[in-house]
Write a structure and sequence with these properties.
This protein is mainly β. Strands 28-29-37-1-31-34 form a six-stranded mixed sheet, with no helix packed on it. Strands 2, 4, 5, 7, 10 and 13 form a six-stranded antiparallel sheet that branches. A hairpin with an 8-residue loop joins strand 20 (about 280-285) and strand 21 (about 295-300). Keywords: Signal. This is CBM11 domain-containing protein.
Amino acid sequence: MKRFQAKMVLALATAAAVLVGGLGAIAPPGKAEAATTSTIVTLDSADSLSGWTSSNPLTLDTVNKKEGTASLSMTGSQVVQFQKTFASPVDTGLTLQHGSLKFWYYVDDMSKLDGTYGQVELTSSGGPDVNEFYWEFTSRVLPQLSNGWNLVSLELDDVTGTLGDPDLAAIDYLRIYFFNSKSPVIKLDQVYFEETVKVPASAIVTLDAADSLAGWSSDNPLTLDTANKREGTASLSMTGGQTVQFQKTFAAPVDSGLTTRYGTLNFWYYVDDVSKLDGTYGQVELTSSGTYDADEVNWDFATRVRPQLSNGWNLVTLKLEAATGTIGTPDLQAINFIRIFFFNMKSPVVKLDQVYFEERPASSVAVTLDAADSLTGWSSANPLTLDTANKREGTGSLSMTGSQAVQFQKAFASPVDSGLTMQYGTLNFWYYVDDVSKLDGTYGQVELTSSGGPDVDEISWDFASRVLPQLSNGWNLVTLKLDATAVVLGHPDFEELNFFSDLFLECQVSRREAGSCVFRAV
C-alpha cells in the first residue's frame, strides 16, 4: 500500500465575515448596506376546521381572529391542543440557518397553562415522532406568551431536537400539545413558514464591469455579449481551447480594499458544458506588477475554480487566505492585472462578468478551541506525534501516519462556548496532503458535538462531498458552513462544545498533521 502525508491546522470560525464572502452577490457590487430578505409560505390559514383535530372540543371562531376569516378555538385540559395531517405535503422553502415556523396563538389566561411538558412537532412522515423537528413547549413557546394573541416564532436552528430525517420540502404534519391541569381557552391562527436572510454589510470594490472589450484580450476569439450576461449591459465571451481565457492590464491601478484575512476576489463565470473543461492545470492570477508571475497572488483553476462550476452562470469566490500561492509582494492597494487561463483540449463557450473585490466584515471575536501545540487529549486510530517543523500556527502541529479511519479526535474536559450560530457559523481548518489522489475513500465525516462523544448532539459534514472538493496537494483552507449542507443529530449546544473528530475511510496508508483550533464570532 502507498503512503502519503496530510497535515492540517484546524480553525473553527463563526463570523458573518466568514459566511458573507459566499453571499456577496445578494447585494449588488457597489452597495455596502445590510439587506434583509424574507419569504413566507403558508402551511394553513386556520380559516376552516377541515383536517384539524384536538383532544378538546374544537370550534371555528369567526370573531376573535388575527388573520383571514376565522381562527381555530378549543377549551379544555386534554393534552393535544391542535393537530393536522396534510394530504398534500408543503414545500416550506426553508433552510436550517434562516428558517422559522410561525403561528398566532391565543390564551385567555396564562396561569391556566400550568403544565411542565409539551411540544410543537413538525414532520414529513404524516404523523408524530418520525422525521420530526420539535420544540419544547415550556422553554420555547411559553416565554413568548401573554394573555391574548401572541405571534410565536420557532427557529429551525433552535429546535429542541430532531427525530429521523425531516424533509423541509415535504412537511405534512403539525401537532401542538401540552400537559396541564386547568382548562384554558386556546386559539390558533395563520400557521406559516418564514425564511429570513440578513446579510451584514460588506465592502465591495469593482475591478471591471466586463461591459466593454476595452483592454481585454484572450487566446481565443473574444466578443461582447449583450444578451447573455449577469450584471450591467454585457459580458465578455470566448469560444475555444487555447490557454488564456481572459486577460487585462489596467492603466489605473485599483485599490481593492482587501486584507489577506477577509478579502475575496469574485466574478461571474459562464461555461456551456463543464465537461469541456477537461484540463488539469490553470490559474486565476491577480497582480500589482502589470503582468503575470510578478507580485502575484494566484489560485489553481482545477481545485479552486472548477469545483464551484456547473453548466451556466456561476458566482466564483476566491479567498485571499486560501490562495494557492503568491509570487513576490503583491500590493492589494494597486492591483493592475488579472488573468484566467486553463489548459484543456476541448472548446467550451466561456463568459466573464462583473469582476469585483469584497472585504467581508471583520468584526469577530476569536475563541481558541485548541492550539494543537500539544498531544494532550488528542487521539487517533493511527500513530500520533507532534511536528514542530511543519505547522501553520503556534509551536507545533499534530501528525499521524496510517490508513485507519479516525484521523484526529479530542474530547475536551472543559466545554467551549464557541459563539457559533447557524445563521453565520462556519468551521474552518487548514488541511495539508502531499497527494490528494491517495485520499481514495468514499465515506467519512468531520464531527463537532456537545455530548463529549460522536453521534449525539452533533453537527457533521460529509468528508467526500464537503472536504475533498476543497483539497489540492499542499496546504488548504477548508470552510464548512453551518447550513443545510451540514447534518444535525439531536441538539448540539454551541455554547458547550466538547468533542471534535475527523475521520475518513480509505485504502492507502497516510500521514497527516493538525494544528490551532479557533472559533470566531461577530
